Protein 1
Amino acid sequence: MKNQIIISAPGKLMLFGEHAVVHGKQCIVTAVDQRLKIKAQRLEEPEFELHAPVVDVLNYRKPLSELGKGDIPKGAKFVEIATRNFLDSRLRKASGNDSFGVSFETVSQFKSTFGFGSSSASTVCTVKALCELFNVNLSEKEIFDICYKTVLDIQGVGSGFDLAAAIYGQTLYFLAGGKKIEQLTIYNLQLVVGYTGVKADTAILVKEVNARAEKYPKLFKSIFDDIGLIVEEAKIALKKNDLTKLGELMNLNQGYLEALGVGSDKLSNLIYAARNAGALGAKLSGAGGGDCMIALVEEKNRRAVEKAIEKAGGKVLKVEVNAEGVRIERLGN
Ligand code: PMV
């Protein structure tokens, strides 16, 4: 058994299919090269400790038997509940492990406000670190299931696409709840990412879409179906590296996201600025309402698109797509 380990997992960007994926449709997500790291250490007493300064959690400590109980600071929720769920599903069943505890420290390369999925990356890192520290051998899908339960316990809603990106990495075709997780081979996809400066609340936006869908069930069903068709077309276009078509599909997807009511003036400003500067297509990425937009570009007009996004008030975030999934880092890194 190891006493100490460092694990990292990537952030993500939704390429196609957000919101519809919560309603049973498929989506396409890519992992990005901005990573969240967790350092985990085995303790000799049954205690849980977390130090996560980026989310204002400093030297938080409680007995393992109290996990999930009482007031939990917002920034500690995912690591704490993931630990509880891991222990409940695995460790407490294995004998001889109950006397140990665990201490975590998280560091992120990206801000939690970007919408790159810091909560999902920290959930995945937690479960992977516990597997390594306590010698529990879990498949990627088993890790996904513990992490997905954690997200549902905390947020009540969500498809789990972000967890899949953090675990498997690369670019994935994904069905809600992990019913299907398929790795897609993609070519050199050039994306420009523009951050609106506004933090979106995913759970609230998902609930707002649900409320509208209840009011207009037929209309929303057909919008979700159409988004599903866009994802299928995008899967084929990605395979063929048909960038023109991918750009058009991004624009179409954006139209449907506007129809769902998750656009915003800031997102639209950045999206139109990118399109007008020569992007092949542009859309919001994620829940909408803020966070980031993405634009598909050719290398020759990347700079023009970046400049246009900045001029429209966005912050360009440099990321590469198709990054590696959760991994063990060398101690000392
Ligand atoms: O806000 P983000 O980047 O976590 O994306 C949310 C995507 C949704 O489809 C709206 C929700 C989900 O869990 O799939």
Protein 2
Amino acid sequence: MEPRRNKLKLHNGTKKKIVAGNWKLHKSPAEVGEFFAELKKLDLAALNSQLAIFPALVTLSAAVEAARGLAVLIGSQNSSQHLQGAFTGEVSPKVVKQMGAELALVGHSERRVLFGETDQLLAGKVKQAQDSELTVCFCVGETLSEREANLTEKVLAQQLEAGLSLANSKTPIWIAYEPVWAIGTGKIATSGQVRQTHEFIRNLLLKLDFKSAAILYGGSVKAENAKELSQIPNVDGFLVGGASLEASSFFDIAKATVC
Ligand code: PGA
């Protein structure tokens, strides 16, 4: 299969914001096709956002095919620190790239919590994905008890400093700030919390020399809250779970996003 090349720039060097959907373990190949068929009917040219979808890995190929001709980037939800070898069940970023995907999601809180992925492991995954020419979307976020104990900044600094320790700071990267307590719960961080946390992340990234990083917010983003959230300084876009599963609600979020 010929890799799909997309000439769009991937970071906030453009004026575009990023609206990325994380489908987790949802959708069959047929449902992936239906989603993109629905999306094609909508007025994507009117959007000012760069769209991206992270389909379940077994449907990556179906998503690349279905998104052909659309300005939607496709990415893997996981990406191994290994390229090949005796690593049963792993996902080679090199092959992900060959299949026509352009992004790799690394460090989602479900991977950290449910699959025991450590900061050290994630640093290797980030590096290998970048070396394979995938743009990394690296996720960070605090739990509710960490926020209540005033540990948010400490936790985020630890996750970012460790997770990016092997990364190339000159390569564009997406950082998704997703408070764990806001993921799939319908609870949304307040504008003040998002403003303060994104500013903290931006300053830390500048200190670490990641000047071309885009910072996405994630956690119960919907069309109803996207407009307000998108106007907060240092919010360069969104990582959307539940509301990205339907083409219309995903489109509505992008439409509500102010660039
Ligand atoms: P949610 O998920 O939008 O359903 O809260 C976000 C995510 O897990 O990336």
